[in-house]
């Protein structure tokens, strides 16, 4: 199956609207709606650098957005904010429908240019879905108001600390990739340092230099990274906790609260 980029899937101007349909986003620095297609699970969509700031969002389904800085899991309650010029790809975890938006970088909507996982509140979700449904209407006062409010809500959306960064060190990268494929919450520094033939102290320093996190912090992030799409797909906390190697569902829930600020149940709405 040949995958298309968001740029390939950008909507055509509404019939009969002519150039005006293109200008109403440019003249008013309003966001440009990208894509709108549904992609089945387990597909990877390679994308080129985005020329503008981009909100990568699946109004339905679950996606993983991967950049040189790391990876983020985004169910419909979350989206990934990417600054202009960022190379990235998307892996579809659960069949997803693209609802991404391009934003003029001169607005500096999110402050300093950096990748972020942001919370999508119900109002912003509904605005984006409604804007997609109304895009064939072209330049109307209602559409301008909707897109302007979308910008306001994106600016106000809180960032969430769920970045999974990967090292460049070849041996350490292999260990990280293996762990992400099958996380084990109780795996220790000693196991990893022995596999690389390093002392515990040398390994600890290397790991932090390569990932920006301690081994324990990264291990929690990786377990959370693995858990989010499974919880979003409806699996129980108990099943996910046991599969990830936690001693009990309550131990997993404690970790989840520490990382996300809320319990799994509240996170999933």
Notes on the protein architecture:
The longest helix is centred in the last third of the chain and has 18 residues, at 215-232. This protein starts with 19 loop residues before the first helix and ends with a helix. With 269 residues, the chain is an alpha+beta fold. A hairpin with a 2-residue loop joins strand 5 and strand 6 (70-74). It has helices spanning 20-27, 122-134, 141-156, 170-181, 189-196, 200-211, 215-232, 237-243, 249-260, 264-267; strands at residues 32-33, 38-39, 44-47, 53-56, 58-67, 70-74, 78-82, 88-98, 101-103, 116-119, 159-160. It contains ten helices and eleven strands. It is globular and about 65 Å long.
Write the layout of secondary structure elements.
Elements (H helix, E strand, L loop, with lengths): L19 H8 L4 E2 L4 E2 L4 E4 L5 E4 L1 E10 L2 E5 L3 E5 L5 E11 L2 E3 L12 E4 L2 H13 L6 H16 L2 E2 L9 H12 L7 H8 L3 H12 L3 H18 L4 H7 L5 H12 L3 H4 L2
Antiparallel strand pairs: 1-9, 2-8, 3-8, 4-7, 4-9, 5-6, 5-8, 7-10, 10-11
Helix pairs in contact: 2-3, 5-6, 8-9
List its salient traits.
269 residues, alpha+beta, six-stranded antiparallel sheet, five-stranded antiparallel sheet
Question: How would you sum up this structure in a few lines?
Answer:
This protein has 269 residues and is of the alpha+beta class. It has helices at 20-27, 122-134, 141-156, 170-181, 189-196, 200-211, 215-232, 237-243, 249-260, 264-267; strands at 32-33, 38-39, 44-47, 53-56, 58-67, 70-74, 78-82, 88-98, 101-103, 116-119, 159-160.
Q: What would you call the structural class? A: alpha+beta
- Cα-atom radius of gyration: 20 Å
Distance between the termini: 34 Å
Number of strands: 11
- Choose one word for the global shape: globular
Q: Which percent range describes the beta-strand content?
A: 15-25%
Low-confidence segments, given as residue ranges, are: 1-28
Percentage of residues assigned to helices: 40-55%
For the sheet with most strands, the description reads: 6 strands, antiparallel
Strand order of the largest sheet: 1-9-4-7-10-11
Mean pLDDT: 82
H/I helix tally:
10
Q: Return the string of H and E elements.
A: HEEEEEEEEEEHHEHHHHHHH
């Amino acid at each position: 199956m040949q995958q298309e980029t968001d740029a390939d899937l950008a909507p055509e101007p509404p019939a009969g609207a002519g150039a005006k349909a293109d200008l109403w986003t440019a003249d008013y620095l309003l966001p440009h709606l990208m894509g709108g297609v549904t992609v089945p699970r387990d597909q990877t969509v390679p994308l080129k650098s985005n020329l503008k700031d981009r909100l990568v969002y699946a109004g339905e389904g679950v996606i993983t957005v991967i950049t040189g800085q790391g990876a983020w899991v985004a169910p419909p309650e979350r989206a990934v904010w990417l600054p202009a010029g960022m190379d990235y790809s998307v892996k579809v975890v659960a069949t997803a429908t693209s609802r991404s938006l391009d934003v003029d970088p001169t607005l500096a909507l999110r402050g300093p240019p950096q990748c972020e996982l942001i919370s999508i509140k119900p109002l912003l979700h509904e605005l984006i879905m409604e804007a997609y449904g109304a895009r064939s209407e072209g330049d109307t006062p209602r559409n301008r108001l909707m897109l302007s409010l979308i910008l306001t809500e994106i600016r106000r959306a809180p960032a969430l600390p769920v970045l999974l960064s990967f090292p460049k060190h070849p041996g350490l990268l292999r260990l990280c990739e293996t762990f992400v494929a099958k996380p084990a919450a109780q795996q220790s520094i000693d196991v990893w340092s022995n596999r690389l033939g390093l002392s515990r102290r040398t390994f600890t320093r290397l790991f932090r230099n390569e990932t920006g996190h301690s081994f324990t912090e990264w291990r929690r992030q990786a377990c959370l990274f693995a858990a989010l799409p499974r919880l979003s797909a409806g699996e129980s906390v108990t099943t996910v906790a046991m599969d990830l190697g936690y001693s009990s569902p309550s131990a997993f829930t404690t970790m989840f609260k520490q990382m996300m600020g809320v319990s799994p149940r509240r996170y999933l709405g």
